[in-house]
Amino acid sequence: MFYHDNNLQYKVRVDKPNPAFAKLLQQAIGGIEGEIRVCLQYLFQAWGNRGPNKYRDMLLDTGTEEISHIEMLCTAVALNLDGATHELKDKIVGENPIVSNILGGMDPRHVLSSGLSAMAVDSNGVPFNGSWVVGSGNIAADMYANVMAESTGRVLATRLYDLTDDSGMKDMLSFLITRDAMHQNQWLAVLEDLGGVTENLPIPNTFPRENHVPGFEYAFVSTNIEKPGESQGRWSSGPSIDSKGEFQVVPVQPGPPIPDLGSPDVKGYAQQQQMTNGDRGLIENIKDTILP
Known about the structure:
Blueprint: H1 19-30, H2 35-47, H3 53-80, H4 84-94, H5 97-102, H6 109-112, H7 139-162, H8 167-193, H9 196-200, E1 219-222, E2 238-239, E3 246-251, H10 282-290
Parallel strand pairs: 1-3
Antiparallel strand pairs: 2-3
Helix pairs in contact: 1-3, 1-7, 2-3, 2-7, 3-8, 7-8
């Protein structure tokens, strides 16, 4: 259950409205690097958490905070759109049709669809995609995914910071950049709380190690046949990061031959010249199982 009040987590002000910047801010709302993504990611991880409740509570706290960041960005978009209807009218009346469609970089849907409000889309107007939300049920895997999400979100926020001269927008973005830094540290702290890399890698650490294929656990396979000597690095020699083996470089070698895939399925409608036998085919067999 969630509760709310009528205050923002941090102040949002715009010195001079800029509809074009409002469009750029949409990426921080509904883009793959945006706040909707991290908000839903942390909440779904919390709601599906199986294990110590402290991790569920921590994820709920942070996922709820991310709702406030969405609110801040939506407020910023709305403030940047003040007066946009007049700008839109002037451009349509005063410019040729091709130029008027560009609208000086603003998103016409901010006028046509949302009435000068933010939308759950990215800066290109593409709707938020729920498939970006990671909630694997493995807490260590999820923490690494969360570090990536906060890292790319912080990269985006720093780029937006450099794309505006508005002191109010810079102040708000500075706050979001600061919180992204904290959250990167937070997720890495959870991994440390779980025992660090030696206890958690490889993920999942519950799969029997004896079922690994010998010789490949810590082998860096070099597929560069022209410059195999350039495969040197921390990943190619010395102790592995999980301290359970030694890295080594293994030049790629030809493996077993490609198996014969047989003739096409007769109901897949390939060419007659491709057929080599009279099998009924997989599609026909599937049809028999689903049709009475």
